[in-house]
Amino acid sequence: MPQPPETPPEAPPTAPGAARPARRRRPVLLIALPAVLGVAALAGGATLAVLDLTRKPTAAEIEKAGATELAARWKRLPAGRIFPMAGGDGSSEGVGTPATPYRRLGIAVPVPCADGLDREIAAVLARYGCRTVLRATYSGGAGTLAGTLGVAVLPGTDQATNAISALGDAGTRHGVRALQVGGTTAQSFDDKARRLFAVDGNRTPYVFFRTAGWTDGRGGIAKDDLDEDFAFSKAALYDLMEKLRESNDPCKVEGVRC
Question: How far apart are CA 75 and CA 89, in angstroms?
């Protein structure tokens, strides 16, 4: 007698804690897709950053970096690197000539313009934003000559250039105040001992001054003779101006980032 087909047994109920069938993978793919996009975005951003760091600076960026460095050089460099130690005798890298040797005797702390310059000069420079004056005193000849160099710090090149023009011939009668240096041949070199005044510029945010005189109390003489006798102060000033001149390649200057 034929037997009825067997009925498959029912699946036993899932016991608590038993393993469940694996879930479908589509949700995992949906979650992974935004992650991949995020990684791609980060990679793209990193690529842009690398490109920005490795590209060459533009001419405008180089000019801006150079102007910023030059305007801050007076406080970034030690005073001993701004004011040359000696020159005019073949011992310096400056432009002093063998006939006009000079030697630095002392450097003053920076002072406000009203304290480092004659009143007539300070009043003019104040209109153009004069901030600070740096000074150093030098000796020339056999120690009977002394001179003080001054650097007035202005906000920018245009202000410095306009200030020099506004001074006119006042810059030949007044200027930087003398800096006496105790224990040297310039210990008696005060404002009354000044005989020559001069002002100069080099298309930078700085105005340069020099004054010179004798340390033995000698009186004044004709202007033509002063230029020759005090040539040491001109040599020292030109070497100083080289320290505060615009760099040909500012991106290579220490501390500059183009």
Answer: 28
| 255 lies in some domain | no
Burial class (CB in 10 A: 0-12, 13-18, 19+), 258: middle
> How many structural domains is the chain composed of?
2
CA 243 – CA 239 distance, rounded (Å)? 7
Same domain, 160 and 40: no
Provide the percentage of residues in the chain whose pLDDT is more than 90.
55
Cβ atoms of residues 82 and 151 within 8 Å: yes
- One domain, residues 36 and 159: no
**247 three-state secondary structure:** coil
Q: At 253, phi and psi to the nearest 5? A: -75, 140
Question: Which residues are within 8 A (CB) of 174 and not within 5 positions of it... i.e. 6 or more apart?
Answer: 117, 118, 119, 120, 121, 197
Could you tell me the pTM of the whole model? 0.74
Q: 48-74: per-residue pLDDT in tens?
A: 444 455 667 787 776 677 778 898 999
Structural domain including 190 reads 78-249
